Recover the amino acids of this structure.
């Protein structure tokens, strides 16, 4: 178990050694083209490996097995990324979205009830978006009608990652239909094994099917499963904090810096231009790759600035939106450049690798996957509205 | 020792206050129409406040802070579009003397710069604007107890007001040198070239059998001197980036204010997403450029071996990103932003010069590829 409180160098060496000992050799080749159930089995196993090391949730408070400072979390995220670990996709919602919400909005009893499960490997999903409530999330229509000590939930959610595997759902539902938009919403924890829930998978544009539609038909949820005040769920749902978001993106950026760009350069050194010359010797090619290389470094600088500000207690307000837009578009530009360079040879199906970042070597698929980052987590268009309104004070 | 974040905030706010008084839009326009091209009283004040020697070690009369502190001033000067010899003298010339290997040669001119008794300039681009050592247009040779200089250098900032010049030159065998030259020396000719950026002045400097004493070399000829010139280039890149970020930040704030206030179709134009998203893109570029430039300056202080890569990454990203900001500022302002009276064109021209003054982004990317893709260096 890696512990907080030592020097950063010792921690760095510890994570590095752990990765060297635990990251399975050849996992990329083994997982390429895996079926959904093979993917889930692999990610369950990998989550268990992380759990055993103390690296699953370094940002949690000490009494829950975390207690690493922000600086230490940065070191862990960096070294995991550099250590070429599989993405901890299956447990990400539970560890990075649900748990911080529980720490900030749940009662002590609720924490005792739900956190040990997360620590022991329960899977969570997030029931936010609906077919008619995407960017305009506050217009959501799923109803939770109070019936004594229970709510009765009916409605439909969509784009719900890992809903088929999930044990629990952190759900936003309308408890007061008479109130305007975000005022009448509550945040409920729903047992995904309860009667009345139906989950249908949605296959994504890049292949995998971790997305789902979730249908709730008079699902009974005890009132004690409500997080935060009744009708006060909107504030609870905004709870993914700047630090956690910064660390998550930092890990992705570090993957891109230490593997994505490297892989692009390595691959480009094997490609030939239409004139038969090695692509990597072409000045135009070198310039494009160097531009992406510089851009990835700039993303990292913005993250460092954001993390420094968080540590100093400076308000990072709109910077979360800035970093989301910047990272996703730097990623997409790299993919655009590489797929251009690769030419028609990049249009052959090289097999999807679902549990990696955007460095699978199947560049056309990574290119498609990059749009997931531009659309997901609040589209970049919505993020630009947020930047305009919250950072620049532009009228709505 | 570098300033703490709080002290740096304090420096920033002092600089902003001073410049808002002494370098208003009107003040800038007045200054650039004078023969000197800048406000000498403001320049004296900048020197007295110690801004030009923040990065000079205490033993040599400076504040002993770092480049990360110097760029705070560069940023504010860019923000206010202030015309001044700061970049030429405080960044390039002072930086060259601080970084010089031959301390004996550097001490006296450095003391004069720190005291504000003289202004410095550096010539290290060719007439075609290249910073590659083998492209230097000034040729040096040792002749008896003197160094002889012939040829010319282009795009020299503030050469007309310089009391001391540091000249990048190459020998017939290609070895580089960085030579101190008194600009009044016989055989040195300084000619202004008309620049698009009205807030800065550029010159071609020609040397025709110009002589300077043999002890004017700031480093051993050859690789050590090439390295010194490359370090001055890195300083220039990072300071110009800070200048560009300052100007772009000001352009963003002006534009956001305009988008809040200007109404069309019965509402502020900032309510329209087409306009709002232009503004958001400006904010993303400014935020990213600001973080990149700060990080670059910290790297100058902390990682002496990494200066070239730092400069290449900075030049690759910041100039183009800030130019885009200025373009969007002009677009959001519409017709009014396309007039001579408005500051948008002054910002655009200043940022564009910052973008390319110390080598084009394209050249820096190629340099970056050569150094960052080591296993794949072009053969």
């Amino acid at each position: 178990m890696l512990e907080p409180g030592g020097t950063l160098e010792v921690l760095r060496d510890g994570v590095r050694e752990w990765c060297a000992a635990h990251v399975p050799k050849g996992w990329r080749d083994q997982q390429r083209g895996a079926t959904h159930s093979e993917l889930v089995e692999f990610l369950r196993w990998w989550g268990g490996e992380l759990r055993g090391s103390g690296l699953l949730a370094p940002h949690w408070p000490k009494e829950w097995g975390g207690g690493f400072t922000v600086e230490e979390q940065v070191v862990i995220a960096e070294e995991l990324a550099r250590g070429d670990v599989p993405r901890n996709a299956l447990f990400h919602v539970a560890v990075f979205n649900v748990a911080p919400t529980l720490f900030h909005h749940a009662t002590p009893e609720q924490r005792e009830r739900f956190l040990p499960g997360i620590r022991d490997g329960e899977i969570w999903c997030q029931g936010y978006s609906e077919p008619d409530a995407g960017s305009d999330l506050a217009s959501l229509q799923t109803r939770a009608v109070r019936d004594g000590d229970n709510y009765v939930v009916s409605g439909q959610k969509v784009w719900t990652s890992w809903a088929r595997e999930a044990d629990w759902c952190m759900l936003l539902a309308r408890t007061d239909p008479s109130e305007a938009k975000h005022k009448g919403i509550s945040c409920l924890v729903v047992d995904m094994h309860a009667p009345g829930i139906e989950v249908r998978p949605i296959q994504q544009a890049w292949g995998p099917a971790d997305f789902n539609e979730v249908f709730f038909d008079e699902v009974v949820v005890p009132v004690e499963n409500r997080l935060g005040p009744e009708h006060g769920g909107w504030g609870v749902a905004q709870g993914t904090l700047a630090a956690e978001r910064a660390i998550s993106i930092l890990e992705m950026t570090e993957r891109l810096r230490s593997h994505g760009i490297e892989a692009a350069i390595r691959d480009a050194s094997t490609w030939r231009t239409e004139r038969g010359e090695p692509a990597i010797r072409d000045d135009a090619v070198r310039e494009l790759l160097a531009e992406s290389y510089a851009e990835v470094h700039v993303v990292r600088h913005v993250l460092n600035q954001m993390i420094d500000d968080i540590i100093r207690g400076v308000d990072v307000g709109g910077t979360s939106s800035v970093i989301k837009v910047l990272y996703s578009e730097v990623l997409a530009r790299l993919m655009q450049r590489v797929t251009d360079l690769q030419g028609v040879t990049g249009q052959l199906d090289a097999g999807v690798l679902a549990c990696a970042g955007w460095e699978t070597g199947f560049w056309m698929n990574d290119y498609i996957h990059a749009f997931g980052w531009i659309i997901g987590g609040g589209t970049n268009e919505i993020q630009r509205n947020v930047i305009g309104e919250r950072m620049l004070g532009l009228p709505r | 020792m570098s300033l703490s974040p709080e002290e740096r905030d304090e420096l920033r706010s002092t600089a902003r206050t001073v410049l808002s008084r002494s370098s208003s839009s009107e003040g800038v326009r007045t200054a650039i129409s004078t023969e000197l091209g800048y406000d000498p009283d403001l320049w004296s004040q900048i020197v007295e406040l110690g801004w030009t020697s923040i990065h000079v070690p205490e033993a040599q009369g400076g504040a002993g802070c770092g480049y990360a502190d110097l760029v705070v001033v560069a940023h504010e000067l860019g923000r206010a579009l202030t015309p001044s010899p700061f970049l030429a003298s405080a960044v390039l010339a002072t930086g060259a003397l601080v970084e010089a290997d031959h301390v004996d040669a550097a001490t006296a001119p450095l003391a004069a710069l720190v005291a504000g008794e003289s202004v410095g300039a550096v010539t290290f681009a060719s007439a075609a604007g290249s910073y590659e050592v083998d492209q230097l247009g000034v040729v040096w040779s040792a002749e008896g107890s003197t160094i002889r200089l012939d040829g010319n250098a282009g795009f020299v900032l503030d050469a007309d007001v310089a009391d001391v010049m540091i000249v990048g030159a190459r020998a017939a065998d290609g070895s580089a040198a960085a030579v101190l030259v008194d600009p009044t020396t016989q055989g040195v000719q300084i000619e202004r070239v008309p620049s698009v950026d009205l807030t800065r002045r550029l010159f071609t400097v020609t040397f025709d059998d110009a002589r300077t004493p043999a002890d004017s070399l700031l480093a051993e000829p050859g690789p050590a001197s090439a390295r010194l010139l490359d370090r001055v280039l890195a300083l220039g890149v990072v300071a110009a980036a800070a200048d560009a970020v300052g100007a772009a930040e000001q352009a963003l704030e002006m534009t956001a204010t305009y988008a809040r206030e200007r109404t069309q179709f019965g509402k502020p134009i900032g309510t329209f997403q087409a306009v709002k998203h232009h503004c958001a893109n400006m904010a993303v570029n400014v935020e990213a450029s600001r973080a990149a430039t700060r990080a670059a300056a910290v790297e100058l202080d902390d990682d002496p071996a990494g200066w070239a890569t730092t400069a290449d990454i900075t030049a690759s990203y910041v100039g183009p990103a800030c130019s885009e900001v200025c373009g969007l500022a002009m677009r959001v302002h519409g017709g009014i932003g396309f007039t001579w009276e408005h500051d948008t064109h002054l910002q655009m021209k200043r940022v564009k010069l910052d973008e390319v003054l110390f080598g084009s982004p394209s050249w820096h990317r190629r340099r970056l590829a050569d150094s960052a893709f080591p296993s794949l260096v072009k053969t």
The CA atoms of residues 73 and 110 of chain B lie 19 Å apart.
